[in-house]
Amino acid sequence: MRLYLAYFKMKFLNEIQYKVAALAGIATQFAWGFMYIMLFTTFINNSDTNSISSIQIVTYIWLQQAFYMLFAFWSVDKDIFDSITTGNLAYELTKPVDLYDVWFVKTFALKIAKTALRALPIFLICMLPLLGEFTMTAPVSILAAIWFIITMIFSTILLLSYIMIIYVITITAISPLGVKITFSLIGDFFSGGLIPIPLMPDIVQTVLKYTPFYYIQNIPFNIYNGYISDNLEIIKIIGIQVFWIVILIAFGKWLMNRSMKKVVIQGG
Length: 268
Known about the structure:
Number of strands: 0
Number of domains: 1
């Protein structure tokens, strides 16, 4: 465990240095946030079929922008892809560590570092009353805040489990670009990264509930804003999150062990 904590610390300290990039990212998140809020609130105010309110969607969007780098499927560890395509994976295989766990920890550290630099400033600014109808609200209750934290933890683990599958599939590919783009687009769309799931047609929402994507960012954000408020439903949702985590990690580890048996080292 101490070894994996060391990997986490090294990656975190390396990524936390890029403060200028984070500042530029914050400006970008505000631009996209205001645009999405105007788009989706206009849609909600001119439709009688939506179950989510304008206030809830405003809070959802700002949460999405604050935790953008955490839940962005395309935000992965470039060093891992480079090690696969250049042949440095061979050096990783000689180390007495579980490669799956190392990649998992490093990706987690990368996402935490990038999120830490952006989330707090966005939270502080978006809760200012000066923003008027664009103001982000606090959690609807203390219990909702607790559920939000718990589901955020499981959502992050679930996302990382999915990203690990992307890494493993890349081992047998010539280039990581196609794999990364395909899996990232699928994840971003079906997890509500482009269109919030509550705004999708009912039939689509029903289908997504049978996939792991529904239980990533959609759950904690909609608990925070009060869209999901039934405690029994939340407990059931957490159980489903754990189920998908076990499935994806087990599949990822099985796939990695299978890939390692016939891996071809590229580069030279």
